[in-house]
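Let us work through a complete example step by step.
Step 1: write down the sequence.
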Amino acid sequence: MTPNDRLQLDCFQPELVVIPCGSRKLDRPARAADLYTGSYHRACRKAADALRPDRLLILSARYGLLDLDDVVEPYDTPHGTTDAVTSQLVLEQATLRGIVLLDPVVALGGARHVGLVHAVWPHALTPLAGTRGMGEQTARLAALRNDAVNWHSSCRS
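Step 2: predict the structure and record it as tokens.
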């Protein structure tokens, strides 16, 4: 996390956080909030929840932007493949939802995920930028979650 991103994340409540889907899923249709079972997705979700955004969306490689209550079928489509969603589709979905102008926006996830988010929200903060792999990202997510929890606790005092 750059000092600029850390400062900004410590000083606001985001209007939107977008987290990635995950390759590990339930084997049956489920709410998007429950479908993804992998540890990376769960780490992103915990960090996003700690930020207390006005809105939290999952960016699915198959379906695009999902609300937590959207019920979807499991799938096997990684970001970046020919069957995966495109930035154009994500922009269309965001436009239909009326969320294109939200700010601040935080994108948690790897480069492909962030690239899709930046196509809609070029100003989105990307606190995982510059990390060198899943392990470093997971550690940064844990630090982000702890920082957010501590900051929100101090705000109540």
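Step 3: interpret the result. The chain is about 45% helix and 15% strand.
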